[in-house]
Design brief:
Blueprint (H helix, E strand, L loop, with lengths): L2 E4 L35 E7 L8 H9 L5 H15 L12 E3 L7 E4 L10 E4 L22 E7 L6 E7 L8 E4 L9 E4 L12 H14 L4 E6 L12 E5 L5 H4 L2 E7 L3 E6 L7 E5 L3 H17 L4 E6 L4 E6 L2 H6 L5 H5 L6 H5 L1 E4 L2 H5 L3 H11 L3 H14 L4 E2 L20 E2 L10
Parallel strand pairs: 2-6, 4-17
Antiparallel strand pairs: 1-5, 2-7, 3-4, 3-19, 6-8, 8-9, 9-11, 10-11, 10-15, 12-13, 12-18, 13-14, 14-16, 15-16
Length: about 425
């Protein structure tokens, strides 16, 4: 059994250490999401229209005007700012110093010293991607109701709806959006599918389709969703995605790609090129369901094969990056240098995408593209191992592959270097896209 020690991320004000004892009785007084407090509780409900076709950029803007409430600006970010004003976060992430690192890709460095303070390292098993849900450990039914922003469900009649004060239907196990009290960025939230089913951290078709719908509803290329499997720096074994708003391109989004094939439902699959972490990129499809199926089938294969991975949903749900990784395994085997370990950077989906969350001022001041590249290169599978995994994966999804033999580079031009001086980034609601 491979284990590593790391400081766990506190995602809720009720997040306790594994060894802490929490006694929950009737009327526990915490206003949580468990049986003692949930009955009769209400939350806003956003019911989205099921999208059959992946919208173009113009179509997304058009759809947004027909929504009952502006999903991103008014609902998600508005409710997030309300919780910020109420003092529910452990620190003010909008005050964290952030800069663009000089170089071709524009890696983003953030100094976030508050994310790991006053926490003791905890052991995590990293060689088992699928683990059973354990209700004795922290899970999202233990968060306070004040940390939950709204319910997020498909509309029953096909039209988008918003109800400002809807009963929480425990028997229907709604999906909810909650704050992360240790945010990485402005608007950092958690999407928790079917929260009362207490699903372990494993992707299935329905949960991934839900995440794609959230990206479509947000309708902004600067609002992205991410997923970490167990063994790839997820620390809570209760199914969830993360998301936040950052008004600049991620380095991984700038990387060129090489087309491999197109499925018979129009999903294009690409190699990620000239990037320190090897991965696959999925785009398009005849419908959102088609894209969700191909990606989720790929994730299920990795889970069942015990290969840790991360997922980034970008471009309002039109592009998905799938990134198998092995950093935690190398760390457990003692194959990562002490220099990298001393940074305490946990390379999960955001770091792999190029948003480097640094915990020491020294690392922030010395941040460079070379340093970021060196860390992420340790995350990636070797070329031989990646090709082996890709071959097995394609055998799994081969039923829908139609090889066309074409090769397309998404960015044939050389990347333009950024200015050699680090560029500070403004934070807060002023960065929102109208």
């Amino acid at each position: 059994m491979l284990r590593i020690k790391r400081v766990p991320t506190v995602v809720s004000n009720y997040h306790k250490e594994d060894g802490d004892v929490v006694v929950v009785t009737a009327g526990c007084g915490r206003n949580c999401l468990r049986d003692c407090c949930i009955h009769g509780a209400k939350l806003p409900l956003y019911a989205y229209k099921k999208a059959n076709k992946i919208a173009t950029e113009n179509a997304v803007c058009h759809v947004a005007r027909d929504l009952p409430i502006a999903f991103l600006d008014s609902l998600l970010l508005g409710e997030w700012e309300d919780r910020m004003e109420r003092g529910l976060f452990r620190y003010d992430v909008t005050a964290c110093e952030t800069k663009v690192i000089p170089g071709n890709y524009g890696f983003i460095a953030q100094l976030n010293e508050g994310r790991h303070l006053k926490k003791r390292p905890t052991e995590f098993q990293v060689d088992k991607v699928l683990q059973p849900f354990d209700g004795n450990k922290f899970n999202f039914t233990k968060v306070g109701q004040e940390e939950v922003l709204f319910q997020f469900e498909a509309s029953e009649d096909g039209d988008p709806q918003f109800i400002s004060n809807a009963l929480i239907g425990v028997e229907n196990s709604p999906s909810v959006v909650a704050i992360n009290v240790s945010p990485i960025e402005y608007g950092h939230v958690l999407l928790i599918p079917h929260i009362f089913e207490c699903l372990p951290q494993r992707i299935d078709h329905d949960s991934f389709l839900l995440a794609l719908h959230m990206a479509v509803e947000a309708g902004s290329p600067y609002f992205r969703l991410g997923y970490n499997s167990l063994g790839a720096f997820a620390t809570i074994n209760h199914l969830h995605f993360q998301a936040y708003f950052l008004a600049m391109p991620f380095p991984i989004e700038k990387a060129p790609t090489k087309k491999i094939t197109t499925t018979n439902h129009g999903v294009k699959i690409f190699h990620l090129l000239k990037y320190p972490v090897r991965g696959l990129v999925f785009e398009g499809g005849d419908s959102l369901q088609d894209l969700a199926k191909v990606v989720s089938d790929s994730c299920i294969f990795l889970q069942d094969t015990n290969i840790p991975y991360n997922v980034l949903i970008a471009d309002s749900g039109r592009r998905v990056f799938l990134l198998p990784q092995c950093y935690a395994e190398k760390q457990a085997l003692g194959e990562v240098s002490s220099e990298l370990l001393d940074t305490q950077v946990n390379p999960a989906v955001w770091e792999i995408s190029g948003h480097m969350v640094l915990k020491r001022k020294k690392d922030f001041e010395e941040a460079s593209e070379e340093n970021a590249w060196r860390l992420l290169a340790e995350v990636s599978l070797s070329e031989a191992r990646f090709e082996e995994v890709k071959t097995m994966l394609f055998e799994v999804i081969a039923y829908c592959i139609v090889a066309d033999g074409s090769v397309i580079l998404s960015e044939e031009a050389e990347l333009e270097p950024l200015p050699r001086e680090s560029t500070p980034i403004n934070k807060g609601s002023s960065a929102m896209v109208n």
